[in-house]
Each structure stands twice: as C-alpha cells, then as structure tokens.
Amino acid sequence: MASQIFINFAVKDLNKSKAFYEAMGFTINPNFSDESATCLVWSETIFVMAMTHERFASFTSKPIADTENNIAGILALTVDSIDKMNEVADAGLAAGGKESKALIDHGFMQVRTVEDFDGHTWEIFYMDMSKMPQD
User: What is residue 134's predicted lDDT score, i.e. its pLDDT?
Assistant: First the structure.
C-alpha cells in the first residue's frame, strides 16, 4: 500500500466547508465522516479531514490557530495541466473562497492560491519538469 497523507484542520462551519471542497473537486469518504468531521478525498493518497472546532480540539492540548488572521501553513496540490489548475482555483473562488495571491508563473511552474472560509491556504499548481531551468 502506498503511503497516504491525512491533513487535519478545524473549520467553523462543516457543511459550508464540505460544499467548498466538493466544488474544488474533492469527494467525500462517508466511512470517515460524521456530524463532526468530513473526510475529503483529493486522490488515492491525499485526504483532508475537516473537523468542527470541538472535534479538532479533542486531538490537541494547544489552542486552535486563527487561520483567518494568521498563517498556519500552506497546503499545495498538484494538477495535470494549467487548465485544471484554473478550473480548481476558479471553482474554489466561485464557492466563496478568496484568491489571496495573484497567479505566480515561474515558467516551468504556475501557481494559484485560494483560501477557504477559515483562511486555510491552498496552492494549486501545475509543473512541467521539461521546462525546469538547468544549471
């Protein structure tokens, strides 16, 4: 079995967050979802666990970060084309997200940045290694 990653974070409105991520192309795994958490699937190896603040707090003794005003991390997802990058980012914006940074174009890599309702920052990017600068 390939290694998997489960990204866990707290959200203020689980249903609103669920709709936002579904609009971006995530699917829901009902086996790991209930009224306090939703398992959002990006790929066979990448999962996001969006949890109510109460549920998330049960996993830690630290206070939950205020990600609307402070950055806790930047989560990055690759896609297969520039068109797909734009599709995912535009869907997130149409679902109520915020583009916190303008498109970044490194020539070999293009990046769009979208924040969800809670301020969780996502970079959606396409990378063409054949265009990577060589030293």
Answer: 80
